[in-house]
Amino acid sequence: MVFSIQVTCLVSGGKDSVLALWVALHKYEVQSIITIHPEKSDSYLFHTPNSRHVGLIANMLNIPHLTSYSSDNNLNREVMVLKDILEETNTEAVITGGLRSDFQRYKFNRAAKLAGMKCFNPLWRLKPEKLILELLTNNFTVIFVAVASMGFSKDLLGKKITFETLERIRKFTQGTDLSLTGEGGEYESFVLNAPFFPSEIKILRSKVHWDESREEGSYEILEAKLIEKNSFFR
User: How many domains does one find in the chain?
Assistant: First the structure.
């Protein structure tokens, strides 16, 4: 059932925001997609790796895509950047993919309130196992695009999240404070395909960045394009 509430969706390209977008498309009238591009990797609120490719998702879904930039990691300025772009949407609410971070939830709600809107978090407190299984059983194609924690090694970068990698992650996160869903910054992801995508994203060129001393790195998508799912030519 779709309610006649007009919303905008905050989408980074990661698994949580894309799953939240899918939920929103079933429940509300999605008028636009918003992506904030932080210029520094230590943003308090916004997912960084490969967010510039979210336009491909908006294009295939034929949803207007609004973008803005956050020039530093000043928290108050990040809230105001989000508030300003929310005001441009003329919608009633913003949808986010927030899972468990009360800090981010409060700040997103703050930006929405300043813009005269509501903030909905459809995945809030969803159990980690359930979220990952939701993605896998519905044939989402999700890759690791950043790792930054013990056990999340270089070889994961660019790899798909599968039942096998899920089991691997479960083994070294069990009994620790590490998150199976990457909620604590252990890893970040990007969605190449989803059940509601009319096309899939094909990576043409990429580059792995790795800091050996810090044992963390990222997978940069340098070039990508859309391929229709019913296309015989790949």
Answer: 2
